Amino acid sequence: MRRPKPRSRRRSHGPAGRAKPLESVARDLPQGIDVYADEFSIYAGNANKPLAQKICSYLRTHLGDVDVFQFANENIFVRIMENVREQDVFLVQPTSRPVNQSIMELLIMIDAFKRASAGRITAVMPFYSYGRSDKKDQPRVPITARLIADMLTVAGADRVLTMDLHQGQIQGFFSIPVDELTAVNILVPYIRKKELTDIVVVSELGFAKKARSFAEILQAPLAIVEKRRLGNQDTTELMNVIGEVEGKTAVIIDDEIDTAGSLIEAANALVAEGAREIYSCATHGVFSGAALARIAASPIAEVIVTDTIPLPEDAQPDKVTVLSVAPLFGEAIRRIHRGESVGALFSSEVQLVEEMTFWDSQTADEQTADEQTPAIPVER
Predict the structure, then answer these.
(1) pLDDT digits (tens, 9 = 90+) for 103-127
(2) What residues contact residue 134 under an 8 Å CB cut-off, 6+ apart?
(3) Distance CA 19, CA 99 (A)
(4) Sequence-separated (6 or more) residues with CB below 8 Å from residue 66
(5) Which residues are 159's β-sheet partners?
(6) In angstroms, rounded to a whole number, what is the distance separating the alpha carbons of residues 139 and 127?
(7) Beta strand pairing status for 235-242 and 222-230?
(8) What domains lie within the chain, and their CATH numbers?
(9) Does residue 115 sit in helix, strand or coil?
């Protein structure tokens, strides 16, 4: 039997220069290549809509229209109110309070967008809950961080964009690409602007690697607080402080502040060791229970966190300063959509990230209104 001749590799024109039919062009595309529409869309669950809106302000676009709500029986329902077929979709949803509801919202949103034929789905998780459950440190306990990773993958996420995981090994729990951002380069310029003298960076062992980077940028020494967790009730015992802190301005750095118990113990230990002044920096301000009250009554001069998690609605955050990571997530989203390097933001282009520290979403909105030109074309 005579074999048919292979089709021409030309994409857009026939033999006489005439435009080829669309279906003919589609047949000529090599098999196995993913083709996404030249559009991206950003949607948000209920966990942190203000952050999603700020990300859209940075990208000069608008937040997508999706309904996410609970019925009276607490079942979650998601309905996408616009066409997303073959679009590059980014779902902004930190798994913060209420944690389990936020996780289910994200999973159901991913499933809804997959069934709506979105071209690619990126779960944008500024805060990854259950990060502490990343290993079997006791008999007969789960590795819940791995379970969450499996659930996201099975639901249909194509990649994950997150920030300052409790442990970097959590990236390995995923079988899909994970981009982990860090807030270190957002926090450093704020500390620099305060013009503090004789700084010493203080961290616990688990965050020592990123704390060392933080200290190197500030050209400051590093001290380590050694502690031991007691049981499963969010209580810790501080063992000792390793490093010289007497007469210095201590800047405590960590990935999150939960009940603030460990933070207050560390601050009291630093005071006992002769520290002159104490500041605290963290990426995620969880602030569970009476954390904010503890901080207000502590010797800490100021606590600096980011807006990966919204503050509790009834909070009166004395001593707490919140920096926005919206421009950093916005820039990462832009680069993922265009196939550009995200890692460059923390190496060759780190100055761009440091300039984001004092970014103002209101000013960005005003500039967008004046220009009336989106940074990346978005069609609805």
Answers:
(1) 999 999 999 999 999 999 999 999 9
(2) 143, 145, 146, 166, 167, 169, 170, 173
(3) 54
(4) 43, 44, 78, 79, 80, 81, 109, 112
(5) 122
(6) 27
(7) antiparallel
(8) 40-182+327-371 (3.40.50.2020), 184-323 (3.40.50.2020)
(9) helix
Query: Catalytic residues, which ones?
Result: 227
The phi-psi region of residue 182 (left if phi > 0; otherwise alpha if psi is between -120 and 50; otherwise beta) is beta
Which helix (DSSP H) or strand (DSSP E) does residue 25 occupy?
helix 22-28
Inter-residue contact 227 to 268 (CB < 8 Å): no
Task: Identify the band that residue 226 occupies on the pLDDT scale cut at 50, 70 and 90.
Answer: confident
First to last CA, the chain: 50
Q: What is the pTM of this model?
A: 0.84
Q: Do the Cβ atoms of 49 and 91 come closer than 8 Å? A: no
Query: Mind listing the pLDDT tens digit for each residue in 255-311?
Result: 999 999 889 989 999 999 999 999 999 999 999 989 999 999 999 999 999 999 998
Q: What is the Cα–Cα distance from 179 to 163, expressed in whole angstroms?
A: 8
CA angle 224, 96, 202 (to 5 degrees): 10
